[in-house]
């Protein structure tokens, strides 16, 4: 993988930190078009379940974000869940989505 832009590296670090802090299956972070960042983890409750990226997008939208520049998800899975991709695409058709492994190494760029 090519070297990351410092702003993209920041969201990977935020996603990794959120995942570690909560011992969650996934951690995610997004950067909105104003440069603000939002991090979240997987939510797995009896009443509802959402991916970490869906939660990060929800945090951004509820804070007034109108678009996204980039997103990152840290997961042990070999893919980004379609629901996660769709959550990002709802706000930004061309935003970069980074998938990193638990060590923070980017494995895929969507």
TrEMBL record:
GO MF, one annotated term: catalytic activity
Top-level lineage group: Bacteria
Listed InterPro entries: Cytidine_deaminase-like (IPR016193)
Name the UniProt record assigns to this protein: Cytidine deaminase
Organism in which the protein naturally occurs: Amycolatopsis thermoflava
């Amino acid at each position: 993988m090519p070297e990351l832009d410092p702003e993209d590296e920041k969201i990977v670090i935020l996603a990794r930190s959120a995942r570690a802090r909560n011992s969650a299956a996934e951690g995610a972070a997004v950067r909105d078009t104003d440069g603000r960042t939002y991090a979240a983890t997987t939510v797995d409750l009896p009443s509802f379940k959402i991916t970490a990226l869906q939660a990060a997008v929800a945090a951004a939208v509820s804070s007034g974000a109108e678009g996204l520049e980039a997103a990152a998800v840290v997961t042990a899975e070999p893919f980004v869940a379609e629901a996660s991709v769709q959550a990002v695409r709802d706000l930004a058709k061309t935003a970069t989505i980074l998938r990193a492994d638990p060590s923070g190494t980017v494995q895929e760029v969507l």
